[in-house]
Amino acid sequence: MSTPNTAETLPTTGPAGGAHASPGGVAVLECDDVCVHFGGVKAVDGISLQLLPDTIHGIIGPNGSGKSTLIGAITRLTKLTSGRLLFDGEEYQSSPASVVARKRVARTFQTVRLLPDLTVLENIQLGADGRTHDEGPRPNLLKRLLGKQISPAVGEAIERTNLQGFESFYPSELSYGTQRRVEIARAISTGPRLLLLDEPTAGMNQTERAEISALLQSLRTGGLSQLLVEHDVQMMIDTCDHVFAMNFGKLIAEGRPKDVVQSPQVQEAYLGRKWRDHA
Amino acid sequence: MSSFYLTNLVLVQATITGLLLALSIQVPIRMGVFSFAGAGAYGFGCYAGAILVLDYQMAALPTIVIAGLASGVIVLVVGLLIAKLNGLYLAMATVAFCLIISVVAINGGELTGGSTGRYGVISDFTMGHMFAIGAIALVLVALSERGKLGRRVDAVREDPELAASMGINVRRYRLVAFAVSGVLGGVAGAMNILVRSAVSPLDIGFPLIVLALTMIIVGGSLSWKGAVIGALIFTWLPDLLAVVGEWQELIYGIIVAIAAVLLPRGLYGVYVDTKRSVLRRRRQEATDKATAQTPPPTSTGDTTDIDRLAPEMEAQR
Question: HSE-up of B48 (CA within 13 Å, CB side)?
């Protein structure tokens, strides 16, 4: 990686954070000085950022920099030590995870978490089951009781993630990459306003990564905000509109993907000072 | 009425009450709650039924409804008290609840009849009532395994964190599991006293936990069908093994041990796994057939040198 001298032009994040608010863009999610400490370990240490609608955001950083913990904090599966979380301007840092999910915050996990006794179709329907924002007539009681109702959002998610033909498969019969796609389909089927993807392309080949990148870009409509955690820097450059870089629980840079990956702080975080100077 | 039915009426009654008892333990296990409070509710239901009929001359159906609802409320309160416990600690707390019911039964004075218990409980309860209540309970539990509710229950059991991230209130589901377990146990206990007409402290307590757990371990813990299989086996097996006399307990124990070691998902689990394996094989055969019928790729810009040269090499050979 070359080191052009662009670091000074980067909008690095200070305590105020949220440096990329676009004109007229109201943040879907705002983190204000969020801290998650485990005893003496400061996994997330004073992060402030904003996620905008119709935008794909990314978080990069070395292992252990606090990326997944931040996603856990945003979804309230990980307890905050301090700080504020706002969704559509409304504070929710004391709400339980299930309430946050009902605000249409969907996520995937770092490791695949599918229910082994449900088929692909049922796993994806589990996501659509939580939809509370659908309009139109509800299916009749008998169909609901007998479990024969499949939501239209499920078919759409299957199509978007190229899972046609896998509907009756169980997770144990699928490759790791396909299981990942089922997880993404489940998250999409919830009809999210904020989609948090924790290493969604781990275990996938280049073709599959490109497909997922194209999928995420196709979702950049209807006010959906996306936050992507990935180690594949090229994918982040190709996919994201705005990237945050983290190290030791702090934001060290943010801005356009290419600028961020070329910033000296980010290169130092990944390679160390000695190797950055040689790079 | 067939002579087989009349001869085995007591076993039929025991199968239905045993099934509801097994379901009272299975419903919370399906939601990942390792609770035996249903067995305590069964004991409570037995005594509540006896007291309501003997002391208040209540008819059978209101007796069952009151005993079931009261058991449900009590077990729900227990659930609230131990909501933060999990796994073995939760199991031990619910075993303690069952033992408390036994202790209260022994020391309850005239109300519970002390160590003698209560007897002479005669009411208008019929086998028709019993079949109807058993069928209703079974249908409701079966419906809870289907559709949206079934998927959500699976999620709560398999991965509470995932369930929460899908908008499911895991705590509420677990509390409902306690309440349902209490109702099922209470109804089973009340029906038992109405058909047996007597109850003593020896009829409730720890042996009930062992019986219910055995039924769902051998039958299968993740479906009502497993509970039915277990209830049938362990109600009728002792009768069938009567011919072996004192070896009965040993054979019973061997069956349970074999099931626990070799059939971790129970007999119903064997059926489910076999069905899936057959489906998988059929799918593989269909894929193989489709692959075999696909014509070999024609020469395109994407083919490798070896692909292009292969026909020529073949011709030269």
Answer: 28
- Assigned domain for B270 exists: no
CB contact B147 to A (< 8 Å): yes
Per residue in B267-286, is it b (16+ CB within 10 Å) or e — as a string?
bbbebbeeeeeeeeeeeeee
Domain ranges in chain A are: 26-104+192-279, 114-190
pTM for the model stands at 0.85
CB of B240 within 8 A of CB of B126?
no
Residue B121 lies in a domain: yes
User: Hey, what CATH topology would domain A26-104+192-279 get?
Assistant: Rossmann fold (3.40.50)
Mean pLDDT in order along chain B per 10 residues (317 residues)? 87 96 96 95 97 96 98 98 92 96 95 94 95 97 93 96 96 97 98 96 90 92 94 91 84 86 91 92 87 64 43 45
Cβ separation B167–A101 shorter than 8 A: yes
Could you tell me which residues are beta bridge partners of residue B127? Answer: none
Instruction: Report in angstroms the alpha-carbon separations of A183 from A108, B151, B236.
Output: 6, 15, 45
**A113 to chain B, minimum CA–CA distance in Å?**
7
| Pick among B144, B158, B165, B169 to test the A interface (most A CBs inside 10 A) | B165
Cβ-contact B114, B108 below 8 angstroms: yes
Domain count, chain B: 1
Residues 5-24 of A with CB under 8 A from B: none
Q: Show the domain range for B117.
A: 3-205+235-248
B134 assigned to some structural domain: yes
Beta carbons within 10 angstroms of residue B309's beta carbon: 12
Reported ipTM: the value is: 0.85
Inside any domain, residue B296: no
Q: Is residue B203 within 8 Å of B126, Cβ to Cβ?
A: no
Q: For residue B162, what is the nearest residue in chain A, using CA coordinates?
A: A113
Q: Tell me the shortest Cα–Cα distance from A131 to chain B, in angstroms.
A: 9
Cα dihedral across residues B22, B24, B26, B29: positive or negative: negative
